[in-house]
Design brief:
By secondary structure, the protein is an alpha/beta fold. The chain has one domain: Response regulator (Rossmann fold, 3-Layer(aba) Sandwich). Helices cover 39% and strands 20% of the residues. It has a 5-stranded parallel sheet with strand order 2-1-3-4-5, with helices on both faces. It starts with 7 loop residues before the first strand and ends in a 12-residue tail after the last helix.
C-alpha cells in the first residue's frame, strides 16, 4: 500500500492530442496527482499501463477506430481503476458493466473530475457516481 503522501499516478488514454493536453494541464492543478504517461491508441495504452503501473487510468471510450471498452475488462481483472470518459451519456451503463470505476462525460466540471480520480484511487469502484455536464 502506498504512503498517504505518495502521488496518485495517472495514465491518460485519448486519441485526441488536444484532449490529452487539456487533461494534463487540468491534473497539474492538483499537487497530489502526477501524469506518468499518455497514450493515443489501444496498443500504446496496454504497453504503458503494464510498464508504468499507474494508480488510475483516464480512458476515452471512443479510442481510435476501436471502442475503449475492450480495455476495461482486462484492466478490471488486473485491479487497475479506470475512469471512462465519454461524449455521450448513453455509453455510461456499458462502461460500468465492462469494469469502469465510473464513467464521466468529457465536459464535467474540473472539480468533479479531480474528485473522481481521488475516489477511484481510494475506493476502486463506485458505479453509482454521476457528474453533470458543465453549464
Amino acid at each position: 500500500m502506498e504512503p498517504a503522501s505518495a502521488a496518485i499516478t495517472v495514465l491518460i488514454v485519448d486519441d485526441d492530442a488536444r484532449v490529452r493536453e487539456s487533461l494534463r494541464a487540468l491534473l497539474a492543478l492538483d499537487r497530489r496527482l502526477q501524469v506518468v504517461g499518455e497514450a493515443a491508441s489501444v496498443a500504446e495504452a496496454v504497453t504503458l499501463a503494464a510498464t508504468l503501473r499507474p494508480s488510475v487510468v483516464l480512458l476515452d471510450l471512443e479510442l481510435d477506430t476501436t471502442h475503449g471498452l475492450a480495455l476495461l475488462g482486462r484492466w478490471r481483472r488486473e485491479g487497475l481503476p479506470v475512469i471512462a470518459l465519454a461524449v455521450y451519456p448513453d455509453t455510461a451503463a456499458e462502461a460500468l458493466a465492462a469494469g469502469a470505476s465510473t464513467c464521466l462525460l468529457k465536459d464535467v466540471p474540473r472539480q468533479c473530475l479531480l474528485a473522481a480520480i481521488h475516489r477511484a484511487h481510494t475506493q476502486r469502484m463506485w458505479p453509482g457516481h454521476r457528474c453533470e455536464r458543465s453549464s
